[in-house]
Every structure is written in C-alpha cells, then in structure tokens.
Amino acid sequence: MPKPPAPSSLFWKLHRRLARLNTVLFRRTRGRVGGTYFGGPPVLLLHHVGRRSGRARINPLIYLDDAPRLVIIASKGGVDTHPAWFHNLMAMSATEVELPGGERRRVRPRVAEGAERASLWERAVAIYRPYATYATHTRREIPVVVLEPAGGSAPEGR
C-alpha cells in the first residue's frame, strides 16, 4: 500500500489554529460551542505535554462517556504511526481533561485490549462512523484509550 502524501505545512498551521479556536470557544461557552464535533459526538479537551518539546498541549478529541471512565480513539495518525498526542499521553502517568460544562477531571490513560477494546470500539463507531472508515485506510490497529479517574488536580508536566 503506497504511503499517502504528507499534509503540507499550510495544512498543519490551519489545523493548529482551528484547534486553538475550538479550545477558546469551548472554554468561553463551557462546552456549548466547540463541545461537539461538527454538531455530532461530544468533545473533551485533552491536556498533555510534548515528549520532545516539553510544552503543554491541548487537543480537542471526540470521547465516549463510560462512567466513571472516558474513552478516546487514537485515530488520526499516519498509515502506520499513532498521532503525537497519543504518544505524549501514554508517556504520562496522569493528566487532565476538560469536559463540556467546565468540568475538569484528572485521569490515568491505558490502552484497552481484547474483548474490552472490541466492545468500546463498537460503541465509539456507533457515535462516530468515520472511525470505521479511517480504520480501513491504515495498517495499524487504532488504539482505544481508556481514561480512568485519578486523584489530584494538576496535570503532570505543568
């Protein structure tokens, strides 16, 4: 399978600006704006620290509420690589997420496997069908990340 062309630097600049705008709208409206993905599934803000840069980062991500856990899908990466936020998150023992309504939760990440992964994947695809489509365009198994509740209030690396 040929490798798809890398997005241009203009694409990434636009992507970063839209993510920042989404974050501002999400916070100012307590999730009423920027709290869903194109009017569909709910979005949370994931706080993580760049492994190379050491800089604090925030990614708006679609999530599945599996109380008291949250579930996110590491879909958008390369054909055979996971996205940078996934690697950053998995390098941290705990971090913080912001949910619509202004709620903040401290969480510990882990990757779901086996039957748990299959069950959560089906539920996630039911709320956001493009996950299944994306999975047909990659050679990697797309991780299903479970965010378990963790104690404390400030994210690691801040």
TrEMBL record:
Q: Which residues form a coiled coil?
A: none
Please list the GO terms describing molecular function. Answer: coenzyme F420 binding; oxidoreductase activity
Q: Provide the Gene Ontology terms for cellular component.
A: plasma membrane
Name the reaction it catalyses: oxidized coenzyme F420-(gamma-L-Glu)(n) + a quinol + H(+) = reduced coenzyme F420-(gamma-L-Glu)(n) + a quinone
Short name of any one Pfam family annotated for the protein: F420H2_quin_red
Family membership: Belongs to the F420H(2)-dependent quinone reductase family.
Q: What is this protein called?
A: Deazaflavin-dependent oxidoreductase (Nitroreductase family)
